Amino acid sequence: MLIQRFKSKIHRATVTEANLNYVGSITIDIALLEACNIQEGERVQIVNNNNGERLETYTIAGERGSGVICLNGAAARKAEVGDVIIIISYALMTPEEAAEYTPITVFPAENNKIS
After folding, report:
1. 74 marked among binding-site residues
2. Could you confirm whether 58 is annotated as catalytic?
3. Which of 2, 66, 85, 101 falls 20 to 30 Å from 94 in CA-CA distance?
4. Residue 67 annotated as binding?
């Protein structure tokens, strides 16, 4: 049996862009993705602290060091520039793997930089 378990998250990132005319997804500074072990194309849940919206999409790697957090396509309707969001990834694990796994949490500093 496999269970779905919290794998990693970027906690309290600030939305820097919203691009309605893009195919979809969320663009995230690759430095943030690497710091929390989220891969490009990985499914993530987005939780908006400002308005309570929740959505799922996939990641696109943004320019390293840019601090970009850009909701694309329909997701752009779920947040505004300046909103604070949490980006969460999950993984399927056996109960034994889950008992041993330590999730990774990244707390971005100002401008979504790694502190």
Report:
1. yes
2. yes
3. 85
4. no
